Amino acid sequence: MARLPDHLTIGELSRRSGVAASALRFYEDVGLLEASRTTGNQRRYARHMLRRIAFVRAAQRVGLSLDEIRTALSTLPDGRTPTKADWQRVSQAWTTRIDQQIADLERLKLKLTSCIGCGCLSLRTCALSNPDDVQAGAGPGPAWLPTEENAGHTRD
Predict the structure, then answer these.
(1) Element (DSSP H or E) covering residue 97
(2) If you average pLDDT over residues 82-95, what whole number do you get?
(3) Where among 93, 113, 136 does a domain terminate?
């Protein structure tokens, strides 16, 4: 098998990573990837950007925000391919965050078949759990499930 060149065009990076060129440009715009430019102003990506793309995609799949991903990637070394130790350091920082997300999903799973606290009053139990839609005062959305807006104000 032929070895990839040290720098890839956006098309080559897209084919190799499985990520659309438009997404790669977006990732670059928001600081997740870096590209150099040729004299003709064409993007060239260092081959190790493939690992960053894989990392971004995996992080997105587990629900991490682009800001969280960008912060983690900013701790990686510039100018060289990150080592296994670099990646382990970054991923360990997310253990607590992912554990919290798992716990949130478990709570959602338990409440999903009854009432998710939306304040809709469409289920018979909503009239018992939330008479006169008192949870509306907590704001929009699922007031009894953890969200960024109501963190720490959940009902078990």
Answers:
(1) helix 95-111
(2) 82
(3) 93
Structure tokens at 129: 């759990």
Match 């004299």 to its residue by tokens. 39
Question: Which stretches of 46-143 are DSSP H helices?
Answer: 49-61, 66-73, 84-92, 95-111, 124-129
Please give the residue range of the domain that contains residue 60: 7-93
Element at 21 (helix H, strand E) = helix 21-29
Please check whether residue 32 is in contact with residue 19, taking contact to mean a CB–CB distance below 8 angstroms. Answer: no
User: For residue 36, how many C-alpha atoms fall within 13 Å in the half-sphere facing its CB?
Assistant: 10
Return the CATH number at 87.
1.10.1660.10
Interatomic CA distance for residues 156 and 149, integer angstroms: 17
pLDDT of 143 reads 62
